[in-house]
């Protein structure tokens, strides 16, 4: 494609002269448009990748990679599941848990999910210990009846460290006064902030033995939580473990527990990619108008080249070279600018906030108050190929039009 004559003449036409300076300006505008489009694509998609990664990490701080629960019965043989999980090289850790929807009463009343855990085992499968902002996870001792509350839940209940919270379990017990719900008073031993509304406003964590006593479960649990080497194989690994056990078990992974959220994020990324690709497409197809103007301006040159023996294919390649070079240079500039922005967005945005005295992501409103970025090489390659392909496609019509110029007719107008 890039024969010496085609390349030489194509590069020659890229240089401006006085009489065709406007054409060169249009070429420069197309180049800058492609660069801006590619840079915008890389930066925006990197930020969206960063948000998805940050959201996933925060959610997985409280949702395990996979859970195995007994189907319709209390989970009595949970220790066997943990033993098998510990023997599996794909499993990092396993921890039992107890969960139950309950009603909590402090200075006010609020519904919440009570989760019973073994602190030492739970620290291996979740990040709850890192998210505690007051108190300590060490307060969860069997028989101490201490509770860790989400920050939002503590505010709704109007309690803080050391205050009492009454938990009303759905189980009932018979007394001389009649049937009454199972009730137990707990003391707030800590407050955590996960940065996810579902947990900060609706989760209470207690020791597993205290939860078993409250819910009258004996030594049974609700299920076993698993942390895996590869979280994207959670369904296969957990399913294989469940199949090795006698009985029927319910297996869930992290994508199922928040499937709507992650599906929405993926759909948003796809839509943003399509929309932002239109910027690149518009800039790339500006090359069409640039080359048509060049073809019109250079008809005399084309006629002379034809009379000197240049074939229509050679003429076509000259203008393909010119348009493709515009696309390549614009793409390279866009990649450099986009990568630089994506890698430094966490520094640039705070600097802009200080200069403009504006807070883009207020911590009072958004759960993620900093703009994260996760640059992926596959995105850079994908956007670069897209820009260059669109640029090359945009050259086909003007190049074909140049190849059809008739030397005699063109020279008659000179």
What can you see in these coordinates?
- The chain is of the alpha+beta class and 414 residues long.
- It folds into 2 domains: 4-58 and 261-412, no CATH class; 65-256, no CATH class.
- 55% of the residues lie in helices and 20% in strands.
- The chain has helices spanning 4-14, 21-60, 78-87, 119-125, 151-157, 197-200, 208-215, 234-243, 254-257, 259-297, 299-307, 312-356, 377-403, 407-412; strands spanning 66-70, 91-105, 109-117, 132-135, 146-150, 164-175, 178-192, 203-207, 223-228, 249-253.
- A 6-stranded mixed β-barrel has the order 2-3-8-5-7-6, surrounded by 4 helices.
Note the main attributes of this structure.
14 helices; 10 strands; elongated; six-stranded mixed beta barrel
Q: How is the main sheet built? A: 6 strands, mixed, barrel
Strand-pairing-aware structural class: alpha+beta
Strand order of the largest sheet: 2-3-8-5-7-6
The fraction of residues in strands falls at 15-25%
Share in helix: 40-55%
Overall geometry comes to: elongated
Q: How many beta-strand elements?
A: 10
Whole-number tally of structural domains:
2
The span between the termini is 30 Å
Succession of helices and strands:
HHEHEEHEEHEEHEHEHEHHHHHH
H/I helix tally: 14
**Mean of residue pLDDT values:** 79
Low-confidence stretches: none
CA-atom Rg in angstroms = 33 Å
Oligomer class: single chain
